[in-house]
Specification:
323 residues, TIM Barrel, two-stranded antiparallel ribbon, 41% helix, globular
């Protein structure tokens, strides 16, 4: 496993992190990626730790806290060996949010209990509207105070869209941002966000690197999803486009025989400027092993990287995802 700096925080993170939305399952009626088995989820977490993954990204929303509980149960005796990033702000899966100082403080204490720790390494606002941050300075001031108290080590914002990421980095003093980036959604690369973060030494956490699983090649246009799987509500057109997208990128590589679908997708993200860590979701030990192998494969060559970018520019993978 290779490790990178998380911006200028002094925190070193594994370049392949563990996105834990999926393992939160459907506890309390939560929306995620369908039903999960806690024992298998813990086995995946343990396998990741064994293979050098030290960055675990979660949120109080995931499984309504169950994701945090699993991390706490699994790593209680290894706390100082791992980096925990959590999020605050969402109250439900309908979209209701609360970024008041009182809620942030209360939510943090609840997360600390579930995680079985007395500090969180990176505490992120969960997709706040930029206008809310501009109009209410108390939000980020609250996180700064919690950082001074030692309850969190770094402040981050998980942005809703790459364009908002530009505003966040330019206007607010944050240690890291989390943003969508993958083969079929290269907006953060195209709009200069990643270059800006690299210049400002703002950490970058890449979410959805496998595009909700569609870049693995395991799903097709007729794939069925459980009622509590977020992908069930998507249009057939969107599912079909994403399910077939990986073929376009694989076909255009100069050394396509060296990459599985997963490794190509993750290596692309790792090859982009400014990226600190990439956090694919993982549900099983086998998925962990495949994802971690991407770190050993190294960055894409210059030629292949350009081919990937050119393929993206020549195709429309989803109307709503083009800037």
């Amino acid at each position: 496993m290779n490790y990178r700096e998380l911006g200028k925080t002094g925190i070193k993170v594994s370049e392949i992190g563990f996105g834990t939305w999926g393992i939160g399952g459907n506890a309390g009626g939560a929306i995620g990626y369908g039903p999960t088995d806690d024992q298998e989820s813990k086995a995946a977490l343990k396998k990741a730790y064994e293979l050098g993954v030290n960055f675990y990204d979660t949120a109080d929303l995931y499984g309504y806290g169950h994701s945090e509980e699993l991390i706490g149960e699994t790593f209680e005796n290894h706390r100082k060996d791992i980096i925990i990033a959590s999020k605050v702000g969402f109250l439900d899966f309908v979209g209701k949010q609360d970024f008041s100082s009182s809620h942030i403080k209360k939510a943090l204490e609840a997360s600390l209990r579930r995680l079985r720790t007395d500090y969180i390494d990176l505490y992120q606002l969960h997709s706040p509207p930029v206008t809310v941050l501009v109009n209410d300075p108390a939000i980020l001031n609250t996180l700064t105070s919690l950082k001074q108290e030692g309850k969190i080590r770094a402040v981050g914002i998980s942005v809703r869209a790459p364009d908002e990421g530009i505003t966040v980095v330019n206007r607010f003093d944050v240690d890291a941002i989390q943003v969508n980036l993958n083969l079929v959604d290269q907006r953060a690369l195209e709009n200069g966000l990643l270059n800006t973060c690299e210049k400002e030494r703002t950490g970058v956490i890449v979410r959805t690197p496998l595009c909700y699983g569609f870049l693995t090649g395991e799903y097709h246009a007729d794939s069925l999803f459980s009622p509590q799987d977020q992908r069930r509500k998507w249009s057939q057109q969107q599912i079909e486009r994403w399910a077939n997208a990986y073929k376009l990128f694989i076909e255009n590589l100069t050394h396509k025989e060296k990459d599985t679908n997963v490794r190509l997708a993750l290596r692309f993200c790792l090859s982009c400027p400014g990226v600190s860590t990439v956090i694919p979701g993982m549900l099983t030990p086998e998925q962990v092993e495949e994802n971690v192998a991407s770190s050993r494969s190294g960055a894409l060559g210059t030629s292949d990287f350009r081919r990937v970018v050119d393929t993206y520019r020549k195709n429309v993978f989803f109307e709503g995802f083009r800037s």
